[in-house]
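Example for tutorial group B:
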């Protein structure tokens, strides 16, 4: 399976490590697929991150750069990737932890395996360990820690259904040219639903009134 891939790197004041990180990612991405790109999002940096990113884009046709005047955070980078990037897979870094290309490879391999299972008509099974037992508080705590851990590093993001595509983002099958719009598919980060506020005061009032 030869799917297209975009790696999104939100960066804040990362001039010292950006060049090395992008070189490592480009080398790895070229092993994973022939059609890939790296989108660097300069998230309001006050150092020379943008200049380094522009220099990388000038040397590597797979690299594109987007700049924010003010820091907007990871949420905005994920939203942008969901709405504007169109490759088969989009992997976004958290912009904080050290970039580990080995983790990126692992995320890609899991996505490929899930895509193969989906295309083959296989349904994902649910094991007993996937079901929360609210009587087992230690297990719930461990599950929450695992969920938070998965937000760090590289993660696949899911697309938002929209016809808006960024014309500056083009898949690059080789260093000589760019062609075709990105298309996005895959599984990704979910959202934790807000919990209802406890009605302590109402319950206390009802108790005092004997209701």
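The residue assignment follows.
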């Amino acid at each position: 399976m030869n799917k297209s891939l975009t790696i999104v790197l939100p960066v804040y004041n990362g001039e010292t490590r950006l060049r090395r990180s992008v070189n490592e990612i480009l080398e790895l991405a070229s092993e994973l697929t022939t059609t890939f790109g790296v989108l660097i999002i300069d998230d309001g940096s006050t150092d020379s991150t943008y200049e380094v990113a522009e220099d990388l884009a000038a040397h590597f046709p797979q690299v594109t750069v987007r700049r924010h005047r003010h820091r907007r955070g990871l949420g905005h980078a994920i939203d942008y990737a969901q709405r504007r990037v169109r490759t088969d897979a989009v992997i976004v870094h958290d912009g904080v932890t050290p970039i580990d290309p080995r983790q990126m490879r692992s995320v890609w391999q899991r996505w490929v395996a899930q895509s193969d299972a989906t295309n083959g008509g296989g349904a994902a099974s649910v094991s007993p360990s996937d079901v929360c037992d609210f009587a087992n508080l230690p297990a719930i705590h461990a599950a929450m820690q695992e969920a938070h851990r998965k937000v760090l590093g590289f993660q696949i993001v899911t697309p938002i259904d929209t016809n808006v595509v960024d014309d500056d983002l083009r898949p690059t099958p080789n260093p000589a040219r760019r062609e075709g719009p990105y298309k996005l598919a895959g599984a990704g980060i979910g959202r934790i639903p807000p919990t209802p506020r406890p009605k302590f005061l109402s319950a206390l009032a009802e108790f005092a009134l004997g209701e």
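Helices lie at 15-32, 49-59, 74-84, 101-119, 137-149, 200-208. Compare this with the pattern of hydrophobic and polar residues in the output above.
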